[in-house]
Amino acid sequence: MRLAYSGQSRKGGWSAFSDSIATEMIKGKSLDEAVKLSNKAVADALGGLPVQEKHCSNLAADAVRAAIEDYWSRRKGTKAEGEQPEG
Q1: Which domain holds residue 50?
Q2: What is the pLDDT along the chain (87 residues), one digit of tens a residue?
Q3: Cα dihedral value 72, 33, 1, 16, nearest 10
Q4: Number of domains the chain contains
C-alpha cells in the first residue's frame, strides 16, 4: 500500500493512515511479536511520509507498544504462554 501526499494538510490524515496500517501490521500476531513493531516499519509500510509528518508513524508504533505493555502490567504476574515479555 502506498499513499500519495498531495501537499495539502488534513488534520489527522497521516495519523489515521499510520494508526490503520499499524493495526493491519499486528493483526494475527502474538503480543510478543506485535510489541516489536517499529517506527520504521510503519513508515516504510506507508511508503514514506513527509518529514513534517514522520511523528505520526512514530506515534502509531509507540501506541501499539504502550498498549501491550499496559496490558501486561495490568495482568499483574498472571502468565499466559507467549504473552509475557522477556527480561
Answers
A1: 30-74
A2: 344 444 444 456 888 888 889 999 999 999 999 999 999 999 899 887 788 888 888 889 999 999 999 999 988 765 554 555 554
A3: 10
A4: 1
